[in-house]
Design goal:
By secondary structure, this protein is mainly alpha-helical. Among the domains are: 11-177, Serine Threonine Protein Phosphatase 5, Tetratricopeptide repeat (Alpha Horseshoe); 453-583, Serine Threonine Protein Phosphatase 5, Tetratricopeptide repeat, CATH 1.25.40.
Length: 758
């Protein structure tokens, strides 16, 4: 039947399948032109590009199919998978299919072909531990034994890393390059050391003794790697081969550092046997092997190092000795061994000026403190750069067991640091009840306790510090004989408790006769303090005490504030309500003749404004010393909501202050556009002039407030014609003050007005 018509006979033909997912590499020779009918039919089915079913047949473990395919066209032997670039030989080697490997090599498969990762068939056979396949491929005469993949691994590297030592031996016998480095700079001797491959290691040494101290990219020698991986047998060999045990890697670590850090005791003891070992070599952090042992808590290694004369006083980059490090981690056995050293400088300070005892106290290491204090040379009151003793640190962190130990051992609890703090001050400030209790025992035992001054530089007492934090339980532990003592601000402990709204602390202090009549340096009473800090609970508690009600009218000297003024100024609505309920004066004025309502309007709090006017309806129009009403204050400070409330309560919108200005003047002058609009809607006249003859427009134009000018002119077009006492228009004010945008706006308005008059 012709190729152009009818159907083809299917006998002996296969359908097009997934085998067509491969293509021939560009180096594959072109096939001869098909001549017979069946050759032409194969071209139709398999394609004329050299595609092959060989790889898929190998994957599917169809040996006879592979043979048949190769018998038909042996030139497709090196066809590669499009995705992986692997040949059939790659797949056979990877799966350990020796029969296939033999078949493909018989058909002269390329044993050096590399896939997309650079792996040859030999790489894949080795990686998967297929000894027979590896051996067969290695018999190829044209094998390039040292080809590397993308990871720079040769077959030899790969065999060593995988631990296939038989393959390694075979490769060495074929003169593979054992000095070639991988991507990390490791040669075969490094890999053998890291993998503890003794036979290979010995063989390599025989081949090239000079490479025994070779370094990789990290500066590690075979000895470093053996120590790091815990391979003591390799270390034995390296010792016999006279490896240099003092070489440092790029981090400055010797093999001894790595053995200690890794906790490899057998390796450690082997390295310690090297005759030329320098035991005190330090790394880039200035840490010796002794530091490493102390930090990790390896007391047995630490003991051996000390026995061999390791320097127990060596300091690392931070100035820490081995004792500092052992203390930090709570490694008591290491501490014990270090403290037995006759040459130990037990009070050595690090760069932070902390001794080991400081460090132990700071971290709450009670047992470590005890061990250090048993040393005859330990200074229990040693100071750091801030003059803090170990007792200061323990008090600051509430390590009361350490405090108890230090006090029992004779620590001086009266010493002060550079802030003039005693340990008791820190405990009180932090609210550490147990620590305060231990320190107060020492205080009470002191024969001079009654005359001893406990105040700080600013005259604060421990009681003040505890009260300031609301630590009422601590207050109960502290001295109360100076409960009414005042600091440099003339505040008492009661003041500080009220300031923080600590009602329980206030209650305790009042029970212990704290004086409520004392005033601070600023002239404030405890009621002022409560109102100022919105201390609702404390204010309520204080107002229910008979002796505090007389303080309702007390005034602060500088501002003239009563507690009610103070509450309003702080926008403390709840406090203001309580004070008014307890008959605080709502008419009393402060400095400048300001009533409570003036202050509320200034703060813009409509809630407080409403509250005050509910007590005194006439307050809405009361004037201060500048003849300003509360509305003036609200307008001046842009408080729209306060203005609304005041207007609703009948304030005089046209009232003038001492300078003849209305609230509208002040809003225009301060550029409060919303207030300006509100006042205009509620009847404020923009034509009223102040004592200088200025309208609100004059003031807005003079300050360059364009939007305010627009609001005013849009609501009162004749304003642009109004003159002040100097016969100046608002446009003149804009020009004089170089407000070009305002000037341009007013010019345009004036022009329109003239055109309208025509």
């Amino acid at each position: 039947m012709s190729r152009t018509g009818g159907s083809l006979p299917m006998t002996g033909l296969r359908r097009r399948t997934k085998y067509h997912a491969v293509t021939m590499p560009s180096t594959t020779p072109a096939t001869t032109t098909p001549s017979s009918f069946w050759e032409r039919m194969q071209c139709c089915v398999f394609g004329e590009t050299g595609d092959t079913q060989l790889i898929q047949a190998t994957k599917d473990d169809k040996y006879e199919d592979c043979k048949g395919i190769l018998e038909r066209d042996e030139t497709i032997i090196n066809a590669q998978d499009e995705a992986t670039k692997q040949t059939a030989l790659h797949y056979a080697a990877k799966e350990g299919k020796l029969e296939y490997v033999e078949l493909f090599l018989e058909y002269k498969a390329n044993c050096n072909a590399q896939d997309s990762s650079g792996n040859t068939p030999l790489h894949l056979a080795i990686e998967n531990g297929h000894l027979d396949c590896s051996k067969k491929i290695m018999e190829c005469n044209n094998l390039q034994i040292n080809l590397t993949n993308e990871a720079q691994d040769s077959p030899l590297h790969l065999a060593a890393k995988k631990g296939h030592m038989q393959i390694v031996d075979m490769l060495l016998d074929t003169r593979a390059d054992y000095n070639a480095p991988d991507s990390l700079g490791n040669t075969l001797i490094h890999l053998a050391a890291a993998g503890s491959h003794l036979n290979t290691f010995g063989k390599l040494h025989q081949l090239n003794a000079d490479e025994i101290n070779a370094i990789n990219n990290h500066g590690n020698t075979p000895l470093h790697l053996a120590a790091q991986e815990g391979n003591s047998d390799i270390i034995d060999l390296l010792h016999n081969y006279n490896a240099n045990c003092n070489l440092k890697n790029h981090l400055g670590d010797t093999a001894l550092h790595l053995a200690v850090t890794g906790g490899h005791f057998n390796c450690f003891t082997k390295i310690m046997e090297f005759n030329n070992l320098e035991i005190d070599l330090s790394n880039n952090d200035c840490s010796t092997s002794l530091h490493c042992a102390a930090k990790a808590g390896f007391s047995e290694m630490l003991g051996h190092l000390l026995d061999q004369g390791a320097d127990c006083n060596a300091q690392d980059k931070s100035g820490d000795t081995s004792l500092h490090l052992a203390v930090t981690k709570g490694h008591l056995q290491c501490c014990e061994k270090l403290l037995l050293c006759s040459s130990l400088r037990v009070n050595e300070k690090n760069k932070a000026k902390l001794s080991p005892l400081h460090t132990a106290a700071k971290l709450g290491q009670r047992n470590a403190c005890d061990l250090i204090l048993q040393h005859s040379g330990a200074d229990i009151d040693i100071k750091n750069k801030a003059n803090k003793t170990p007792l200061h640190f323990a008090a600051h962190k509430n390590y009361h067991e350490v405090i108890e130990l230090l006090l029992d051992k004779g620590a001086n609890w009266k010493l002060r640091d550079k802030r003039t703090y005693m340990p008791l001050h820190y405990a009180a400030e932090k609210g550490f009840e147990n620590s305060c209790e231990h320190l107060m025992k020492a205080f009470k035992k002191d024969k001079n306790s009654k005359t001893l001054k406990l105040n700080l530089k600013d005259m604060k007492t421990p009681l003040m510090l505890a009260a300031k934090g609301g630590h009422h339980r601590c207050c109960k532990k502290l001295p109360l004989h100076d409960i009414n003592k005042q600091d440099n601000y003339e505040n008492t402990a009661l003041f500080y408790a009220v300031e923080g709204d600590y009602q329980k602390t206030v209650s305790f202090l009042l029970e212990k006769s704290a004086d409520t009549t004392i005033k601070s340096k600023a002239g404030r009473t405890v009621l002022h303090q409560a109102a100022k800090n919105k201390a609702d609970e404390c204010l309520s508690y204080l107002l229910n005490k008979q002796n505090t009600r007389d303080l309702l009218s007390a005034k602060v000297e500088k501002s003239g504030f009563t507690p009610l003024h103070e509450a309003i100024n702080s926008e403390a609505l709840t406090c203001a309500k309580m004070l008014l309920e307890h008959n605080a004066s709502f008419t009393e004025t402060c400095k400048g003749g300001m009533t409570p309502l003036h202050l509320a309007a200034k703060q813009g709090d409509p809630g407080i404004c409403s509250l005050l006017m509910s007590y005194d309806e006439t307050a809405v129009n009361k004037e201060n010393e500048r003849q300003e009403t509360p509305l003036h204050m609200a307008a001046m400070h842009g408080c729209k909501d306060a203005c609304k409330v005041l207007i609703q309560r009948g304030t005089h919108v046209l009232a003038k202050d001492k300078d003849g200005r209305t609230a509208l003047h002040l809003a225009a002058d301060r550029e409060h556009e919303q207030v300006l609009t509100l006042l205009m809607r509620r009847g404020a006249s923009p034509y009223i002039k102040d004592d200088s003859g200025a309208t609100p427009l004059h003031l807005a134009a003079s300050k360059g407030h364009l939007k305010c000018c627009q609001i005013l002119v849009n609501n009162a077009k004749r304003l642009i014609q109004e003159e002040d006492e100097e016969n100046k228009l608002s446009i003149d004010k804009a020009f004089e003050n170089k407000h070009d945008d305002v000037f341009a706006f007013l010019i345009k308005c004036k022009k329109r007005r003239k055109e309208g008059q025509r």
